[in-house]
Amino acid sequence: MKNIFWIVLVIPSIFLSMIFGQSTNSENLVDYTKLVDPMIGTDWNGHTFPGVTLPNGMVQLSPDTKTSTWNNCSGYHYSDKSILGFSHTHYSGTGAGGGGDILFMPTVGEIKLKAGDEENTESGYRSKFSHENESASPGYYSVFLDDYNIQVALTATKRVGFHKYTFPKSDQANVILDLAHGLFDSPDSLFLQVNENEISGYRAASGGLDNSNTIYFAGKFSKPYASYGLAINDTIRKNISIAKGKNVKAYFRFNTKENESVLLKVAISTVSIDGARKNLEAEIPLWNFDNIRRSARETWNKELNKIQVEGGTKDQQKIFYTAMYHALIHPNIYMDVDKKYRGIDGEIYKAENFDNYTTFSLWDTFRALHPLMTIIDQEKTNQYIKTFIERYEHGLNMPIMEFSGNETYTMIGYHSVSVLADAYVKGIRDYDVKKAYKAMKQLADGERAGKDDYLRYGFVPDDFYIESVSRTLEYSYDDWCVTRLAKDFNKTDYNKFSQRGEFYKNVFSKEVGFMRPKDSNYKWVKNFDPMQVTKLHYTEANAYQYTPFVPQDIKGLIELFGGDEKFEKWLDNYFTTTADPSKITDADVTGLIGQYAHGNEPSHHVAYLYNYAGVPWKTQKMVREIFDTQYNATPKGISGNDDTGQMSAWYIFSAMGFYPVTPGLDYYVIGSPLFDKVTINLENGNKFEIISKNNNADSPYIQSVTLNGENYSRSYLNHSDIMNGSKMVITMGNHPNKNWGTAKKDRPYSPKYECASVPMVNSTGRKFLESSSVSLSCENDKATIRYTLDGSEPDKNSEKFTHQITIAKTSVLKAKCFVDGIHPSYTVAFVFEKLKLQPALNVSNLKQGLKYIYKEVGCAKTADLDKYPSDNSGIISTFNIDSIKDQRAFGYIYEGFIKAPVDGLYTFYLESNDGSVLFLDNKLIIDNDGDHMLQTLYAKVALKKGFHSMKLKYFQMGGGKKLLVRWEKPNSDIEEIPAEVLYH
C-alpha cells in the first residue's frame, strides 16, 4: 500500500500536470503543428533532424543513418536509404557533428551486433526504409523498417525518449543496444548493467562537436524480455549482467504476436544513473504512449502560438512554422528534474533559482535567434543569462561556443556579450546585473586567439593569425557590446570599450573599398582578391561578406565608403557581382545571390543595410528575393546549415517584416512583411499586430505605414513599441515608394563615439641585443602623440613624440593619440625587452632526428598528455603528423636538440590546430595550448651558436589537424625548421 500511495500522489502533481496542464488553453489556440514539417532542412546542407524533442529539451530522439560524413552532422540525411537505429542526443543544423548517444534498434531474426554495410543492410542490424513510410511532426516520428517489417514510433518528454516498436509475430523479436555507436566520436568508457526491470549505464566518448561527454541513462521495457545478452568487442558473453569496455552492446529478445507493440522509455542524465532514473520516474511513470505524444504536440503548439500569422501561401506558412519549430530546439535544458547538473568543470552542482541550459552556438545565434527570444520569451532569456553568470561564478567564462556542457571555442568572437547587451538594453534584467557586467568584462578582456595583438595594434595582424580581418571585426563589435552596460556602471570602461568598438576602422582599406588584412608592420596584404574565400583572412567568407560586419556603427561604415550613394552602389555590386565557383573553397558559403551568401551567417544582416543609406525600397526588394530563393517547403528547403535555428530565426523575423541588424540596440530595421497579418502574443499579456494591405508576391514595396493610427515614416521599429502592444499597418504596392523612410531622421541610427585612431608603432625589434629604434605615427595628421616608457598611462602632459626614439633597456612603451574635440585614442602598449644570449649546451654523440612519443587520446590541453601511456614511440626526422590520415584524437611529444648556426636573435613560429607548446632550453617560449582552430604564435629568443634543448607537445581533439614549426634565423627568411638542425 505504501508504494501505491506514493504513485497516487506523484501522478497528479507531476505527470498529469505535465500531460494535461496546457489543455485548458488549447481550445483557444490554433493548431499550428499541422504546418510544421521537420523534414524541411534534412536534405542538402540544412543538417536538421526529423526526430522528436520538446522545446529546449535535453533529449533529441531521432534516427541515425550515418555516423561520420558532413551531410550527417545531425545523424540523419534525407538522401540516405537505410537507418542504423534511434539515438537520444542530436544537434539541429550544425556544421559539425556530435551526439548520437544511446542507440537502440529493433530487429527480427538472428542477432547482429554490427551495423553492417549501407548498401548491403543484411550484413548488420541496420535496415532499409522509404520516405513514403516515414512521418514527422512536432513530438512524433514514425518509420517502417523494411528489412524487419517493424513499425517504429517515437515521442519524448524533456529528458526521456519514448519508443514504440510494433513487431510481426516472432519468437526472435529483438532490440539491439549499441553503446559504441556515436556521431563523430570515439568511445572512451562504456558501462551497461541489466536486470529484470531496468537497463542502465553510461557512455563516455571523445571527439565530435561536444568534445568530451558522458551520458548516463536508465531505461525500461513495457514487457519482460524472454532473453538477453551482453557483448564486449562484439562477442556475446554468457551469464553476465554487467559489461564494461570501449565496445559494449546488448540484445533483448521478445516473443511477440502479430502487430504487438513493445514500448521502451529511456531517460538520460549528465550527472548519474540515479539522475537518469529520477528523470524517468518523474516524466514518464506510466506506459501511455499516446498521452505523451499528445502532451508533446500541445507543448509545441503553445510555443508556436506565440506568433500567429494569416495570409501568404500554404508553403510560406509551412516554412514559417517549421522555422519556429527549428528555432526552439536549442539551447537545451541541462539539468535533471532534481535540478542537479554537471558543470563545464566536471563538478556536480544544483541549480538554485535558475534553470541551467547548454548548447549555445553563439557565433550563429547572437544575430537573430537570441534577439527573437527577447520578444517572445523574455523569461527564457533571463535563464540563459543566469546560465552565463553561473559559468562565471564557477571560475570560468561566459560561453563562446558551448555544446552539451562543453566549451568548444570552435568559432571566433565572444558573442555571449552580445546576448547580454541586447537583453539589457531591452530591459530584460531579472538576474544579478552587476555580476553579469563583471562576467562580461572578464570575457571581453580575456584570452582569445590574436586578442593580445588586437589590443597592441588595434587590429589582429594577418602575419600572426589566420582569419585576422574577421577576428578584428567581431572583437570590435563584441567590445562595443560591453559599452551597453558600461555606460551605466563605469565611465572609464565605457571609454575603453567604445574605443575598441572603433577598431573596425583599422582594417578598412579606402584604396580597395573592403575590409582588408594588414600585417604587423601596418602594411596591407598584397594580392588582395575580395572574391576569394579563404580562412587565411576571413572566417567562412570572403572580403565582400565580411566588409559590412560593423553592426555597432553602420553610419561610421557608410562614412568610410564616402557617403550614402557610394555605399548604396557598393551594396548593389555586392548583390550582383557573380561568384566564381573556383574561389569558393568553404562548404559553408552557400545560398549565393551575387556575393551575398545567405547559407552562412556573416551575410544575414546585409540586405537591411540599404535602409541606413536612405533607400529602404532596395531592402524590401532584396528580402523578397531571399525568401523566394533561399527557402522552400521541401527537405532541401534551407540553403545552408540551420545552425541551431539562426537561419530559421532570419526567416521568422523577416517574414514578420523587420530584423535585428544590431543586437545591443533596442530597435529593428523594417523590411518587407510576407503575411497579411502577424500577431505576436507577448508574455506581458499585450499583442503586437502587423497588418499588411495589398500584400502579395507582386507587391513587395512599402507605400505607407501607420503605427497606432499615426503616420509612421521611420524605416525602423522600436522594441518598446512591440512590447507595449501596438498595431502597425503597412500598405504594400508593386512599385517602390522612394520617399518613405528616406529622410535622415527616419533612418536607423548608430550611436556616435568619436575618438582618435590608435598610434602605429614601428621599430627595429621589440626584442633586441643592444637597442631598438622606435617611431610613432597616427593616421590623423592633426593628432598629437604622447608616450611613456615606464608603463604609466600617457596623458596630455606626457612626452610628445617628435622624432625617433632609441630604447636601450627593457621598457614598457605606452602611446596615445590626442585630437582636439574628440576622445583620445585607445592606449597601445608594447614591451621592449633587452635580451642576453642563451648559452649553448655542452653535448656530444648526438644523432639526427627527434625522439617522439605518440598517444591516441583526447585532451583539452597539452599537459593532459602526460597522464596517459605511450601508444608508440621512436625517432622522427622533424615535427610531422602526416601519418595520421583520419580525424581521430591524438597527441605527440617531441624532444631533442636544435643547432643554432650563429649567435643572434631567432624567431620561432608555432602553427597548430589544436593545441601546442614549445620549450627551448627548458623554458616555455610559445604557449599555443588549448582546443582551438588553426592559429600561429611566435617568440623571439637570443641564442648562442650551438645546441639547445627543444621540446614540443601537440594534441588534436579530433577533426582537422595541423602542426607547422618554423624559424627565422638572423638575417634570413622564415622557413620550416629543417631536419638537418634537429638532433637527439
Automatic annotation (TrEMBL):
<dbReference type="InterPro" id="IPR005887">
    <property type="entry name" value="GH92_a_mannosidase_put"/>
</dbReference>
<protein>
    <submittedName>
        <fullName>Alpha-1,2-mannosidase</fullName>
    </submittedName>
</protein>
<dbReference type="GO" id="GO:0005829">
    <property type="term" value="C:cytosol"/>
</dbReference>
<dbReference type="GO" id="GO:0000224">
    <property type="term" value="F:peptide-N4-(N-acetyl-beta-glucosaminyl)asparagine amidase activity"/>
</dbReference>
<feature type="domain" description="PA14">
    <location>
        <begin position="845"/>
        <end position="981"/>
    </location>
</feature>
<dbReference type="Pfam" id="PF17678">
    <property type="entry name" value="Glyco_hydro_92N"/>
</dbReference>
<dbReference type="InterPro" id="IPR011658">
    <property type="entry name" value="PA14_dom"/>
</dbReference>
<dbReference type="InterPro" id="IPR050883">
    <property type="entry name" value="PNGase"/>
</dbReference>
<dbReference type="InterPro" id="IPR012939">
    <property type="entry name" value="Glyco_hydro_92"/>
</dbReference>
<dbReference type="Pfam" id="PF07691">
    <property type="entry name" value="PA14"/>
</dbReference>
<dbReference type="InterPro" id="IPR037524">
    <property type="entry name" value="PA14/GLEYA"/>
</dbReference>
<dbReference type="GO" id="GO:0005975">
    <property type="term" value="P:carbohydrate metabolic process"/>
</dbReference>
<dbReference type="InterPro" id="IPR008928">
    <property type="entry name" value="6-hairpin_glycosidase_sf"/>
</dbReference>
<dbReference type="Pfam" id="PF13290">
    <property type="entry name" value="CHB_HEX_C_1"/>
</dbReference>
<dbReference type="GO" id="GO:0006516">
    <property type="term" value="P:glycoprotein catabolic process"/>
</dbReference>
<dbReference type="Pfam" id="PF07971">
    <property type="entry name" value="Glyco_hydro_92"/>
</dbReference>
<dbReference type="InterPro" id="IPR041371">
    <property type="entry name" value="GH92_N"/>
</dbReference>
<dbReference type="InterPro" id="IPR014718">
    <property type="entry name" value="GH-type_carb-bd"/>
</dbReference>
<dbReference type="GO" id="GO:0030246">
    <property type="term" value="F:carbohydrate binding"/>
</dbReference>
<dbReference type="InterPro" id="IPR059177">
    <property type="entry name" value="GH29D-like_dom"/>
</dbReference>
